[in-house]
Amino acid sequence: PLVLGIETSCDETGVGIVRGETLLVDAIASSVDLHARFGGVVPEVASRAHLEAMVPTIQRACDQAGIALRDVDAIAVTSGPGLAGTLMVGVAAAKALALSLGKPLYGVNHLAAHVAVDIVEHGPLPEPVLALLVSGGHSSLLLVPDVTQDVRSLGSTIDDAAGEAFDKVARVLGLPFPGGPHIDRAARDGQIAIDFPRGLTSGRDMERHRFDFSFSGLKTAVSRWVEGQRAAGAEISVPDVAASFQEAVVDVLTRKAILACQDNGVEHLQIGGGVAANSRLRAMAQARCDSAGIALRVPRPGLCTDNGAMVAALGAQLVAKGREPSALDLPADSSMPVTEVTA
Ligand code: ATP
Ligand code: MG
Ligand code: FE
Q1: pTM of the model
Q2: What is the mean pLDDT of the chain?
Q3: DSSP labels, 25-40
């Protein structure tokens, strides 16, 4: 099936077009530069930017794919989770398209789409697959029977998401927003010189929170360390702090992901979400999966962060597997649970 997907859950207006398991185009207009000076995404600003970018981005995607809108078999859209106001812009646009073209509409879960995008990168996903979903708002270990069916959450963060921790620590270090890519880059010139805490990995925590994560203590530990150095008048090496912080996050993520595979007898690990773009996470996951005999799949960095291709990819799977389309009055659900695939 030929599916057009629309993503507006945060600050990226994404329009992707997928034919079956092949990505035809991934068009993105980002409002990230408008938010940078506020140190975070401003919902009102993002909503307005989506409104302005929507029609031109759809047009550009169709032009680049060499298709006409009437050629598509279905429209897919992120119905949640995300910012209520920005989601509404995408959902309204998708409804208008589906209605005027007379095509089915699929409201999909943004988080399931972060996993499904791997299909247009590496082909069909093994069933089941263990997914480590690490993004700006979520950090979860998911058991995915197939991407069109509701997933089982094995655990998730009990406080900050991994991406949120990257962004907060970047701010402490005076790096620009969003901080993840800046920490990644700074860490390449740094040494893992500081032993920061690995949240929820002690013996007792592993009993109660085996597959949960916690990153707020780590963020506090980094802030305290930086403040301590400053108070002592000592020089702070941003690359060293970045590398040491990143190592602590990546160590816990990969350790627990592999343990989850082993506990559940799953031999395939997929990593998705913006933090999956992190070079150290990709390298450590590959090394540890190799030693554990687990096959690893991570899409290219550009498909890890928010985009329209991921929504189209999941939509194409839903059409191919004959799943019911959503109702035309489908809501934008800002707190859509990670376990639900469609609205
Ligand atoms: P969610 O998917 O939970 O709704 P989101 O859509 O806002 O959240 P994504 O776009 O999936 O989040 O990911 C953005 C996050 O990924 C940001 O926190 C960003 O700092 C982080 N990120 C992006 N690239 C990297 C990188 N190379 N290293 C670490 N973090 C990164
Ligand atoms: Mg973004
Ligand atoms: Fe996302």
Answers
A1: 0.97
A2: 97
A3: EEEEEE-HHHHHTTTS
Output the ligand 1 site: residues, CB below 6 A: 9-10, 81-82, 110, 135-138, 163, 166-167, 178-181, 184, 273-275, 277-278, 305-306
- Atom number in ligand 1 closest to CA 178: 20
Q: Which of 85, 134, 84 is nearest to 114 (CA)?
A: 134
Alpha-helical regions (H) of the chain? 32-36, 43-65, 84-101, 110-116, 118-122, 162-172, 180-187, 203-208, 216-231, 238-263, 279-292, 301-304, 309-320
The rounded distance, in Å, linking the Cα atoms of 211 and 274 is 20
Q: How far is the CA of 239 from the centre of ligand 2 (A)?
A: 23
Residue 39: pLDDT band (50, 70, 90) is confident
Residues making up the binding site for Fe cation = 110, 114, 306
Structure confidence at residue 211 (pLDDT)? 98
CB count in 10 Å sphere of residue 328: 12
What are the φ and ψ backbone dihedral angles of 329, each rounded to 5 degrees? -105, 25
User: Which of 7, 110, 117, 166 has the most ligand 1 atoms within 8 A of CB, as the residue to mutate?
Assistant: 166
Summarised one tens digit per residue, pLDDT across range 204-255 is 999 999 999 999 999 999 999 999 999 999 999 999 999 999 999 999 999 9
Confidence band of 116 (pLDDT split at 50, 70, 90) = very high
| CA nearest to 139, candidates 99, 103, 180 | 180
Report CA(110)–ligand 3 centroid distance (Å): 6
